[in-house]
Amino acid sequence: MVLKVTMLPGDGIGPEVTTEAARVLEAVCERFGHELDLKHKKIGGVAINEFNDPLPVDTLCSCLDSNAVLLGAVGDPSFDNHPVNFRPEAGLLRLRRELGAFANLRPALLFPALAHSSPLQPRVVAGTDMIIVRELLGGLYFGEPRGADETAGRQSVINTMRYSEPEVERIARIAFDLARKRRSKVTSVDKANVLECSQLWREVVARVAADYTDVKLEHQYVDACAMALVARPASFDVIVTENLFGDILSDEAGAIVGSLGLLASASIGGPVGLYEPVHGSAPDIAGRGIANPLGAILSVALMLRHTFQLEREAASVEKAVSETLDAGYLTVDIAPENTRPVSTVEMCDQVIERLE
Ligand code: IPM
Ligand code: MN
Predict the structure, then answer these.
(1) Among all ligands shown, which has an atom nearest to the Cα of 139?
(2) pLDDT given for residue 30 in this prediction
């Protein structure tokens, strides 16, 4: 099979982790007899600096002409005072929209070797294996109107949370379909005691559930869910929620399983899948060669599974990651004190060595 992929390293630690993830992808292609057609393009702060645009046309065209996109991270403190549509993050948000990637899958799995890195007690975190299905193209991130409210006297700004029935329905179906392949439980997270958007959300999710009588559905308010995540993380299977809630809860899930650096994501639903680690650009450690590449490497596994339907290849990457951790290779974010952490590159070498 020919795998046509555009790689967008982006800012901060993005280039370091995607370089390693691309090495894994190359190794998989070599071992399983596929051909990799990989192009590199710019996004985020580096694209603003060079092209005055966080998502240059050439980058977008290359993405639309690929089967899948592998992204590192966007964001840089030097743009902190820029208007939101001229920040690195705006490039990523536009890319998600252009790709029609409405469903963001964020698995959070506790690797047994990492029970020590979770801030939770081992007996609480044991068995944690959830997937957050985050709606990615709606809610406050994209709702109109937004920006300055000229009608108000003093400086005043608006953001709009908006959801339509079809938007909720399509993400709910993704969640239920996923649950069927897992432990058949969906937790729908909302704030239906306060927000009309959430009331519609709850109603539509409940309606979709009627088509999935084999899947158990529960509703949770987002505040209660934030608490339940740390109190009993192993009780979750599939969590489905709107854009901002999903953004917040997935960082929490990252900490629970030991490090945000481990979390991968797949943004699907459109013609081209977008794969990126959940972590950000981490400017504080950028360029030091110590970032955890596993979030990016596991994103490659998701790409193999969801865009290319290469389940054996995906499972081989995940198994290699798990075995690397079992063997005690740990980057600084997950290494216990008084042990020598491995570098970004060493970690990847160890994963590649264990690929089947
Ligand atoms: C994420 C990130 C992005 C988001 C930012 C960089 C725009 O935090 O993917 O979780 O908020 O979606
Ligand atoms: Mn986030």
Answers:
(1) 1
(2) 98
State whether the beta carbon of 168 lies less than 6 angstroms from ligand 1.
Answer: no
197 touches ligand 1 (CB under 6 Å): no
Shared-domain flag, residues 163 and 275 = no
Sequence-ordered list of residues with C-beta below 8 angstroms from that of 310, at least 6 positions apart, any chain: 1, 32, 34, 304
Cβ of residue 246 lying under 6 Å from some atom of ligand 1: no
Residues 247-301: tens digit of each pLDDT: 999 999 999 999 999 999 999 999 999 999 999 999 999 999 999 999 999 999 9
Residue having the nearest C-alpha atom to atom 7 of ligand 1: 89
Q: Which atom of ligand 1 is nearest to the CA of 250?
A: 10
CA of 1 to the centre of ligand 2 (A): 33
The torsion angle over the Cα atoms of residues 12, 282, 264 and 300, rounded to 10 degrees, is 20
User: Both tokens of residue 77?
Assistant: 């403190």
pLDDT the model gives residue 151:
79
- What residues make up the domain containing 28? 1-105+259-356
Beta carbon of 92 within 6 Å of any ligand 1 atom? yes
140 located within any domain: yes
Q: Whose CA is nearest to atom 6 of ligand 1?
A: 89
> How confident is the prediction for the chain on average, in pLDDT?
97
- Residues with catalytic function: 141, 191, 223, 247, 251
Alpha carbon distance 318, 305 (integer Å): 11
Does residue 237 share a domain with residue 205? yes
Condensed to tens digits (0 to 9), the pLDDT of residues 177-234 reads: 999 999 999 999 999 999 999 999 999 999 999 999 999 999 999 999 999 999 999 9
Same domain, 67 and 164: no
Closest C-alpha to ligand 1, atom 4 = 247
| Ligand 1 near 74 CB (within 6 A) | yes
221 near 193, Cβ under 8 Å? Answer: yes
Q: How many domains would you assign to the chain?
A: 2
- Is the distance from CB of 95 to CB of 69 less than 8 angstroms? yes
Three-state DSSP at 1 gives coil
CA of 252 to the centre of ligand 2 (A): 10
Instruction: Tell whether the model's pLDDT for residue 153 goes beyond 80.
Output: no
